[in-house]
Structure prediction request, 355 residues.
Amino acid sequence: MKAKLFIFSVFTLCAIGMLFILSITSVRMYSKDPYILFKKQLISIFLGFMIMFLVSKLSFDVMKKISLVIFIVAFALVLSSLFVGEGKVKRWIHLPGFSIQPVEFFKIGIILLYSNILSKIKREDIDFYAFLLFAVSFFVLSMPVLLQPDYGNFLLIMLFCFFLLFIKGVKMKYFFLTSAPVLALLFFFAVSSTYRMNRILAFLDPWKDPQGKGFQIIQSMVAYSSGGLSGVGIGEGTQKLFFLPEAHNDFIISSIAEETGMVGILLIILLLFFVIFIGFSSAISLKDEFAKLVVAGSTFIIGIEAVMNLYVSVGLMPAKGLPFPFVSYGGSSMIKSFALAGMILSGISHAEDDR
Prediction:
């Protein structure tokens, strides 16, 4: 029952995303073919489904054995983007006909690698120095993400680091002891870049520069306010007519809010709740430490990405460039989300066997 509800929730989120990607991109005409992005997303979902199916059939013993290899490949891809990426923001590796965003696969690698490492260590053996070692190693290995620069995903990976240590059962006083320097470091990275500083200023007061830095978040708020309770009707939204930037990607939730209103947003939140609840409840039921960490970590990544995307869309966080899992346009994000879903499905299956 859990597996069926989980799969239903995932594919319903995908269907909602596809509907609005078609509505938005066909109007904006990103190429001579008005349906090109819709077709690309359809291919990504198909590939993602195949990966989810294959991963769900893997045992956690196999995942543990290949965890280092997967991490090394993912890390190499992120590192290579610094050299082959185009422009100032080197987050993508461009190939003939498509591009990949390596950081999405890096998330999978880091979940598997650190779940493997932590599963071999007893909770009582993690003293303050071991805690610091883990935190610093996460920071060092994530540096290529920061250098791209991709501050949003870097922050997400650091949050995942502390989450993984938290569910391992590390003493809470260690988190409190390191919270001040971590916050100071994040503040330094935020203010050291003009681009990130502009995003923060736009978040704090978007109306100070409504046609510049604050334009995106203001248009997102307009979309929400226009939608009201039931929306203006599917296909009837105006924000997709080149008013709202990234309307099919980072701000697709705002487009959905305009056309379906609070009813549509609550449906998405409900489906996301099913995904997260099933993921965490399955993780709790697992006896194997590695499996527990992998499933909880996969669920956390999906959940935190969705929450951060929602917060950005309503102006509760500065823009981070993070897509909404299973809904936003983006092949790398979609395939990564399906791979994480496959790990969760494997966890659901193993949890039932453990009973």
